[in-house]
Specification:
By secondary structure, this protein is α/β, with parallel strands linked by helices. The protein has 10 helices and 10 strands. It has helices spanning about 45-60, 75-85, 105-110, 120-140, 160-175, 190-200, 220-235, 265-275, 285-295, 320-334; strands spanning about 15-20, 30-35, 65-70, 90-95, 115-120, 145-150, 180-185, 210-215, 245-250, 305-310. The strands form 2 sheets. A 6-stranded mixed sheet has the order 1-2-10-7-8-9, with helices on both faces. β7 (about 180-185), α6 and β8 form a beta-alpha-beta unit. The longest helix has 21 residues, at about 120-140. The structure holds pyridoxal-5'-phosphate (PLP). The site of pyridoxal-5'-phosphate has 21 residues, from α2, β7 and α6.
Length: about 325
């Protein structure tokens, strides 16, 4: 298999370790793939995808990368710092919901020197592709060459990042002498799930990738993941898969909605922080991890001794929720 050239941005391989104290009785051991430790300012899952996407940007010799996300987007923050590392300019098209804090990822975006345009949520949702294209056009008019990177760097190029991570995981499984049947991750734009499923299929490994949706629904992600894989196939017509990519999305844990964590979700993150010394984030991994616990309590995905949860990062996203964590901690004390 000929892999495209990537730029090195992530600290790889990341750790895989078993949770020692936290778990569900009579359920598989939970192992964490620590992709929250792929770096510091470039940490989380996006940087694995950006290694390939920005590899292409460097290959094309572009001056500027234009991408998009919410005001607290981990993807945008990782892109801003990765671009700074590579000497590229970045423009972030951000969705402004009006009530979000300017700390966390948004502060970091600005510190990394990214150009930013903020758009009201309604306009962003209705006109995202136009916004991206017109932003790119503004810079092209100034003589810059531009690469537009889609939401979450989830497309047929970005999926290489998690296809590579699947091979890394297979190596981890051998080292740790485990044979999990499921790898579970939070799903927000589908690229992580698509890449993992693709990588396991490339390797001929019988592992199903379970995405726990943090927005949208099952049908949306079944189609989105299929589309990312199809886009990959389109870009690499010579590459043949040994197996059919196995993936499934669960949409029962979106809860109050994207970036709207419930007290229960935040409490799980507090418990994991205190019992394992691991920080889950409120938007993605906290929600998805709680989903995994619920599934295990219902005896689903229990047909193996071990199960793997990919910790996809997001730590800077805790700060906008400071008051919620404080309220929960003080109510637990009283
Ligand atoms: C973006 C993100 C996800 C979701 O990954 P996708 O590939 O977009 O589905 C999960 N966790 C964190 C912390 C993220 O920032």
């Amino acid at each position: 298999m000929k892999w495209p050239e990537k730029v090195s941005l992530a600290r790889l391989p990341t750790l895989l370790h078993k949770l020692e104290r936290f778990g569900v009785p009579d359920a598989p051991n939970i192992w964490l793939k620590r992709d929250d430790l792929t770096g510091f300012v470039c940490s989380g899952n996006k940087v694995r995808k950006l290694e390939f996407v920005l590899g292409e940007a460097v290959k094309q010799g572009v001056d500027r990368v234009v991408t998009c996300g919410g005001m607290q987007s981990n993807h945008c923050r990782a892109t801003a710092f990765a671009c700074a590392q590579l000497g590229l300019k970045a423009h972030l098209v951000l969705r402004d919901t009006g009530r979000q804090c300017t700390s966390g990822n948004y502060l970091l975006d600005q510190m990394a020197g990214a150009d930013i345009s903020l758009h009201p949520a309604k306009e962003y949702q209705a006109r995202l592709s136009v916004l991206l294209e017109s932003t790119a056009e503004t810079y092209r008019d100034r003589g810059e060459s531009v690469l537009i990177v889609p939401t979450g760097a989830s497309d047929g190029l970005g999926v290489w990042g998690y296809a590579a991570a699947a091979f890394e995981l297979l190596n981890d499984f051998e080292q740790c002498e485990i044979s999990p049947r499921y790898v579970v991750c939070a799903t927000g734009s589908g690229g992580t799930q698509a890449g993992l499923a693709l990588g396991f299929a490339m390797a001929g490994a019988d592992i199903e990738v379970i995405g726990i949706a943090v927005c949208d629904d099952e049908l949306y992600f079944q189609q989105k993941v299929a589309r990312d894989i199809a886009d990959w196939q389109c870009r690499n017509p010579g590459l043949k898969l040994d197996a059919v990519p196995k993936y499934r999305t669960l949409d029962g844990y979106v809860g109050q909605g994207y970036a709207k964590p419930s007290d229960e979700e935040l409490s799980v993150a507090l418990e994991v922080a205190r019992s394992e010394g691991v920080l889950l984030d409120p938007v993605y991994t906290g929600k998805a991890f709680r989903g995994l616990l619920c599934e295990l309590r219902h005896k689903r995905f229990c047909d193996a001794e071990d199960i793997v949860f990919v910790h996809t990062g997001g730590g800077f996203g805790v700060f906008p929720f400071e008051s919620d964590y404080r309220r929960l901690m003080s109510s637990a004390e009283s």
